[in-house]
Amino acid sequence: MAGCYPCVQCKKRCRNNTIQCCNCNRWVHVHCVPMSSSQLKMWSQPLLSFLCRDCCFTDNEYDFSKALERISSALHSDPKDLKMTVSSESLLLETYGVKIPKQTNPSDQTVDEVSRDILKQFHPAILSAVFPAKTVGDGNCMYRAVSRAMTGSESHHVHFRLLTAIEILQNKYYYDPDHRKFVDLVNDNRIVCSPYSESLQDAVSLYAFSSMTHIFALSAALRQPIRSYYPPQLSAEFVSEPHSRKVIGRGVKMSESPTITIMWTQMRSLSHKLSGKFLKYFQNKLKSNLKEKVNKPMASGFVDSPWTNNNSESLNHILKQAINWKSQPLLDLTITLTGLIDTQFKDLKKALVGTGQYRLADTHRHFEVSKSVWVSKTTDERNRHYKKFRNFKATEKTTVTSTDGKMTIVKPKSLGKKLGQRKRKINERTTTIKKGKM
Ligand SMILES: [Zn+2]
Ligand SMILES: [Zn+2]
């Protein structure tokens, strides 16, 4: 019935050689798109969804955010539908001639002072050849930095994010550590690859941070290597060395030398991403105490009785390692703490499928599910399952009896234990040698 409708583009009547937009259901002449005959043939495949220019452009520019949204809303649909959505997005880019921006010589860049200071400290030689350019730190920073390094402007960051998402979706083997044919491009066991679903979610969500997986995917999408530089001791979550490397994505030539270098730095604007509960706890309980009992006395040069807090004692040593036993600005410390705690919660979730750092206690064993069951659950179902597990209060025996049966005492509260955690034998305990008189 195409004959009854005007073409989206030329407004003339649509008779022959037309294609329908799957969003607004209007028709458009094939030559008005314009579309090659091979592209038309591709679009004729069932289940692919063509979109007219009106539906995928905003202000005459291809709208990459909308494309990401379309993929994002298809993430939890049937794998076949998701595959078709991604193929459609890829074909839309081709049909509308959306190309990877050309490599230009970036000019007019602002030096990022923080990064320059870090480089001065750890890698001064590099400063004679290059300088760190400032990028907006809003979670899109990896894409922004690559866009800036390539074109001198950050404006292509959403485009690059979309390309990364499509790459991860179309080449699952390379990005899913649980896939039986997994090709480990990162190939460094010091870098923990996120589960596929997480990498994917982070790729399609604007403002979600990127990991090594995403840099590899972007390298593949741009068909060129990316040099990643991670200064030592920046953050608790990552180790410097394995993150400082030449990233050679799928299909990129080993021999090619990178023209894009990105540097990881800590971002102050990260604070708005701090997880709500912890931030509240920090603001209401910790902050005033830290100020009153640590900052003030330190400033006056004399700490009378050091104030400590036992609430995160189990994380104490991890935190100390994370900050390298050095004092940090309050905000940086908060960011580090948040990162650590988030990791702990993620580990807790992993215990539900029997992986990660923790194992479920006997009282909670019935919450464990197999990986295949977990994968088949929707995000909502997973969250519900996790919530039930978190809220579950086991009824425990309240007393313990000694092995010889002579003594019964009230059972001490059982605490979470990590794998392999045990009590030290007496003779293993550290002793402090008393200082002799000088
Ligand atoms: Zn037309
Ligand atoms: Zn349309």
Key structural traits:
3-stranded mixed sheet; mainly alpha; two-stranded antiparallel sheet; Cathepsin B, Chain A; single chain; binds zinc ion; 438 residues
Q: Can you name the CATH architecture of the domain at 113-271?
A: Alpha-Beta Complex
Separation of the first and last Cα atoms: 102 Å
Major beta sheet, strand line-up: 6-5-7
Helix content: 25-40%
The helix/strand order is EEHHEEHHHHHHHEHEEHHHHHEE
CATH topology of the domain at 113-271: Cathepsin B, Chain A
Structural class, from helix and strand content?
A: mainly alpha
Task: Tell me the radius of gyration.
Answer: 27 Å
Count of separate DSSP helical elements: 15
Instruction: Please state the overall shape, judged from the principal axes of the Cα atoms.
Output: globular
Outline the low-pLDDT stretches.
267-273
CATH class of the domain at 113-271: Alpha Beta
Could you explain the architecture of this structure?
With 438 residues, this protein is mostly helical. Among the domains are: 2-95, Herpes Virus-1; 113-271, Cathepsin B, Chain A (Alpha-Beta Complex), CATH 3.90.70.80. Helix content is 39%, strand content 6%. It has 15 helices and 9 strands. It has a 3-stranded mixed sheet with strand order 6-5-7. A hairpin with a 6-residue loop joins strand 1 (18-20) and strand 2 (27-29). Helix 3 runs parallel beside helix 7, helix 6 packs across helix 7 (157-170) and helix 7 (157-170) runs antiparallel to helix 8. The longest helix has 24 residues, at 276-299. It starts with 17 loop residues before the first strand and ends in a 28-residue tail after the last strand. The chain binds zinc ion (ZN) (2 copies). One zinc ion binds at residues 21, 23-24, 26, 51-52, 54-55.
